[in-house]
Amino acid sequence: MKFIFWIIFVITGISGLMTVTTKDLFRSALYLGVTLLGTGLLYLFLGFDFVGWVQVLVYVGGVVLLIIFTIMLARESVMKPIVNTVRNPFINGLFALLIFLLLMLVAKNIYFVPEEELEKDYNFLPSLIFQSKYVLSFEVLSVLLLIAFIGAILIARRD
Amino acid sequence: MELKPLFYLSIFLFSLGLYGALSRRNALGILIALELIFNSANLNFGIFSKVWANPLGVMTIIFGIALTAAELVLGFAIVILLFRLRKTSNADEVSILKG
Question: Under a CB-based contact definition with an 8 Å cutoff, are residues A30 and A18 in contact?
């Protein structure tokens, strides 16, 4: 089990790196799909089954499909792939590296509870959504999604 | 289940997303990199929900996923409209709002 965890961990990191370094935008979207799938599987290892499958369904099934459709719609010809060039890679890379090192410095000093002291039977149950005080905000969220979709259709439609 | 390496992974993904969002020229590339940043934030919420045994973190992940989906749908609609009007999806060439 630990071996599978580390394989998924490494694949997620590497495909995240490939997402921002690949030239072809279509491949970049596919690598993003691998990263999101890996994160969803890591949620399963944390014990959050519901969130893991929601991530796989919504992100890998929905959002990556949406990205690929947009790439298909927003290119000049079918034969010509969108080349995704990079601006000032060294300055931006240095900046991102500095932020990375700063955050790692902070993360190194955080005390994490040892694994034995964690609550063993803590698991998020989906029924909690409808039994807690979050249910109203959850319904409001669905209205927000509806408004966003109607807005997207209004913006992108050809009239 | 190792929590600290997962925390480092989320920091790594955040830095990659930051690099991509700063350096990509294409608007779609910027949106893809933003997606990485949201994903790393969600992973972080999951880790600390596990550490403190608090379901609020998982609720935040579910809300974050839905909000990200809404935001990306609008972003891609704008990119498609932009491509129809200007025949480009390059973020540098779009300076309509510049005074």
Answer: no
